Amino acid sequence: MILELQGLGDKIIPKIYDQKTGKFADPNTSLAHKGKVKWDCNDWVKFHQSLVEAFEKGTFASKIKYKKPEAIKQANKVFSEHFNKHNGWLSLEERCGYSYQFSTYMDSVGLSHFITLPAKAVNATRRTVMKVIDSGEKISAKTADTLVNTVDNTGKAIVNVSEGVSNISNVGKYLVPVAIGGVVLFVGAYVYKNYIKQDKQFAVPTPGGIVKV
């Protein structure tokens, strides 16, 4: 949005509606700024949305609270009056009609007559393309999700194998000392039997038999 009063090209966001006070800014103005503030197409969408909210909550002088469908109808009347009033030589219909957000919203609230025929044709093509892209993204996402699940499952299997190896390693921690202890006892028995009890000589077991040293 352009702060036209300053003419410096500073972009500001106009405050269109105050929920606490229920006050609205006039089109191309802001409750939070002085001077004229040009609204863009999205600001007009916000203006209509705020009108619907106000009619639903009954914040206008009548204090009447409308159901959503009726609130939209009431908002359409107010919106149309202001929107038509601010159409210049380069009409808002022509400028905003090509805005995807603006045209989609206007269609949803029954104000599609503010969209010119050329803009409708462009937006129809755009919607078709976006649907095709969206379908492609969903297929890609599904394929990617399948691949991720496969990787996850494989990863889990690998973890299980690793845990198995780890378990074997843990068992090995106990087996090695036991094996070493057995060898020590075996050698100790021979030392005691053959060295201490038999002339203090070592009896070393070999493939050919026991040799005393």
Describe the structure.
The structure is a single chain. The chain is mainly alpha-helical and about 210 residues long. The chain is about 60% helix and about 5% strand. The strands form 2 sheets. The chain has a two-stranded antiparallel sheet with strand order 1-2. Strand 3 and strand 4 (about 210) form a beta hairpin. The longest helix is centred in the C-terminal third of the chain and has 80 residues, at about 115-195. The protein is globular, with a radius of gyration of 42 Å.
- What amount of the residues lies in strands? 5-15%
Query: Can you give the helix content as a percent range?
Result: 55-70%
Number of structural units classed as domains? 2
Number of strands: 4
Q: Which oligomeric form is depicted? A: single chain
Task: List SSEs in N-to-C order.
Answer: EEHHHHHEE
Form type: globular
Record the strand order, biggest sheet.
1-2
Comma- or semicolon-separated keywords:
213 residues, mainly alpha, two-stranded antiparallel ribbon, two-stranded antiparallel sheet, 5 helices, 4 strands, globular
Could you give the topology of this structure?
Blueprint: E1 17-18, E2 23-24, H1 41-57, H2 68-85, H3 92-96, H4 100-108, H5 117-196, E3 203-206, E4 209-212
Antiparallel strand pairs: 1-2, 3-4
Helix pairs in contact: 1-2, 1-4
Short structural description:
By secondary structure, this protein is mainly alpha-helical. The protein is 61% helix and 6% strand. Strand 1 and strand 2 form a beta hairpin.
